[in-house]
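Practice problem: predict the structure.
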Amino acid sequence: MNLHLLRIFFMVADHRSFSRAAEVLHVSQPAVSKAVRELERQLDLTLIERGSGGARGTKGVRLTDSGSALYEHARGIFALERAALEDIRARIGNQRGRLVVGASTTVAGYWLPPYVAALSTGLPSIDVRVVVGNTQSIAQTLIDCELDVALVEGVVDDPRIVATHWRDDQMRLVAHPASPVARRRKLGTDELNRQPWLMREPGSGTRLVTEDIMQTAGIEPDRRVELGSNEGIARAVAAGLGVAILPECVVRDLAQLGRLKYLRHPVSGQMRPLYLLQLRERPPSPLVRAFTAILAERHG
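Answer:
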């Protein structure tokens, strides 16, 4: 496959525009169109839909199924190319090393800081950047080679990623102390179903583990309320809005202050795994190896 033609196709697909791709590549638009057609000829595949608005329709370039598949492959190829260049540049001259760590929200706020501090203490000349998002977004950013390594709360099922168990995180079922469910010695599933359940957004590791726990316990609440952070959910529970399953590291301080209470139910106290993610086709840099060694040593 001609990588020059592939790069031009990738830019067209990425910008959803022939003209914008031409501007970025500093070539003429006819040259871009010719390159895409030549790639289609070489592959014997139609990559871009034409007709009914055409490739230059008001909604921009539309890819065929084959075009979408090739775009995903091209994105991985050129992301790896970018990562290789950055790694080589960091190893030559007088440039300082740089590590970009992705972390899901709870990991970033509660588990990650001491490990980053240990790395910075041992290697004071390096720069560390932490990118925070939910598990799904962090996994995609890793695939795009914008991260060197990642730590997340949810399971990631993608053949491009190697997920290694790092440690466990205890989950707690919590409610406001004055809530009727907080005063029950034996709490039934039917009563839990009648409570408003506070949940994270889809793509969150906490959301995924909560839904798994609820399904196993047969909990099917009549009402759900969705919030975008564990801290927001914890404070909403403390305000009496409903019940939630949250990591103990998030709710511990509020429980000690008496602003929420751990409920007596088998779903409370269950453990969820946290994962170290690395890109399968990307060899770890010396900084990544140093960081993963700290993760193993300090946890062990």
